Amino acid sequence: ELTPRKNGIPERRYTINGVITADQEHRSILPDLANAMAGVTAFVSGGWSFVAGAYRAPEVCYTADDVLEEFDYIYRAPEKDLPNVCKGSFKSPQHNWQTVSFPELVDEDALARANGERQEMDLTLPFTNSATMAQRIRKIALKRAQQEEQAVLTLKPRGLLVQTTDTARFDIPRHGVKRKIFEIRGMSTRYGIEDKRLRFDTSATIVEYKPEIFEWDAEVEEEEVPRASVTIGKVDALGVSELTVSAVNNDFSAAWKNPSPFGKVIEEIKLRITTEDEEGEERMELVMLPGNREGYSFSIAEGSSYQGLEVQVCYEDGARSSFVGAV
Asked: Which of 38, 120, 121, 252 meets the CB 3.0–4.6 Å disulfide criterion with 137?
């Protein structure tokens, strides 16, 4: 599913990008994978499953006739105990795949209800590589953390119409639940003989579920990621002392300190920058002349990600180095 962005170039709602090594425990990886899709995990039928963060309309409605006598309704936690600020980080291709903070999200209404007392939640997105994607995820994560209205109840056999991670509508006015949508977070089935009768029922843990948390208006909600300089690489092997390339978002700059290595005169230095977008890899070249000691600036296209940098030194006597990767 494509989601609009402020720059007019849509992107996929969620993608998962990164490397998982064999020595990492499953329990530490699953939450990060789920966070990359603003989703939840569930252990169903002997295996783990993921449900991405998108509105799922309920197909079943439960009423008081579906509920047995056991009902434990847990009301919303106090506002002062709920998060009203979301902070965190993601992997930015525009910053050489470094960990970069996304703009914090402050729920001003929730903050006011908490009398101005900030309650922060941290969200780490190691498998997310888009600033706009990270911002959509942070909103869902914060709003979901504020949905603390939940219940544990026992349903008649009709409870088997849903499973963990499904949504259902509940209409039980005597418990203050009037056609509210809840997400099923856990289920268990019980059967046996009780008072010489066969008993079969389903216990469900449900959490309130609000469709509006998945809505996104890029023109209003999207923010610019704080600008931060990251050094891409230094090349010394060619005798060019501290040729440094740095990036600030999609804007790059390059400069070097020693224009005459090995007693030779440099004619020019070529930078070859590799980028990638949805259509594949692309290379661009920048020629740096020795007369310009202030450095050079260039930009890569919006929607492209930096992949690598190579340098070639050309001397006045005609000698040329091979292209060497910056490290």
From this structure: 38
